[in-house]
Amino acid sequence: MSYAVPADEPGGVAPAALSLLVHGVLFAMLVFGLRWQSRNPAPVVAELWSELPAIEQAEPKAEPKPPPKPEPKIEQKQAKPDIAIEREKKLEKKKEEPPVKFDNTQRIREQLAQEQKALQAREKQDILKQFAQPAAGLPDAAYIDRIRTRIKSHIVLPSDIKGNPEAIFDVVQIPSGDVINVKLVKSSGHQLYDEAVERAIKKSSPLPKPDRPEQFVREFTLRFKPYE
Q1: Of 45, 155, 161, 206, which cross-links 200 as Cys (Cβ 3.0–4.6 Å)?
Q2: Predicted local distance difference test score (pLDDT) of residue 97
Q3: Where are the extended beta strands (E) located within 60-177?
Q4: pLDDT value, residue 147
Q5: Neighbours of 21 (CB within 10 A)
Q6: pLDDT tens column, 161-183
């Protein structure tokens, strides 16, 4: 009675065949490896150059040129009229001229002159105060009448005067009779007659003196009518 050995167990046919296959592959690798090592190496060929060959350099690609910029338009200025040109010249001339320096000399002189006049007026008032004497009551009528008579003798009446207008003046004198001030208080309405009376008062200076010193008055008022 025969007994069949299964293929899966050791000692069967399949393991024996696999072992032979592996040994065959190893044997082939050894044979071919030895033959490859026994071959002579291929000779190395080297070329000698007297100079290096010229290497062609790749030319750079030319970049496209940008389009030319448009030329700026030149605006033609209109010719200015002669008046505008002259005005500009005057303005430039004014700018070039140095600023005008104001001279205060004349102003200072005028101020000093005014102060001098004011000082003289104060001195004159002081002199009048020294010679002034207070009037006792009303001025003597006869004394004032003599003064009016003296002045009327120097009045030159205008030829065109009409009616009998009255002009009133304030008169200031000093004890010597010299008139130092004449002021028109009321006009007669006729300028030439007013001026004639004022000239007569100044021309009558010095005025008549009173009979007694106590009759003297420094300031008094005189009334004049052309036909009185």
Answers
A1: 155
A2: 56
A3: 167-173
A4: 94
A5: 10
A6: 888 999 999 999 999 999 999 99
Closest C-alpha among 104, 213, 107, 195 to residue 154: 195
The predicted-structure confidence for 84-97, as pLDDT tens digits, reads as follows: 677 777 777 666 65
* Look-up of token digits 């033959």: 35
Question: Could you give all domains of the chain from N- to C-terminal order, each with its CATH number?
Answer: 141-224 (3.30.1150.10)
Nearest to 155 by CA among 220, 203, 191, 209: 203
Q: How far is CA 106 from the centre of its chain?
A: 28
Query: Rounded to an integer, what distance in angstroms lies between the CA atom of residue 11 and that of residue 167?
Result: 183
- Integer Cα distance of 137 and 133 in angstroms: 12
Closest CA to 150 of 185, 201, 108: 201
Mean pLDDT, to the nearest integer, of 128-137?
46
Which residue is associated with the tokens 């024996």? 16
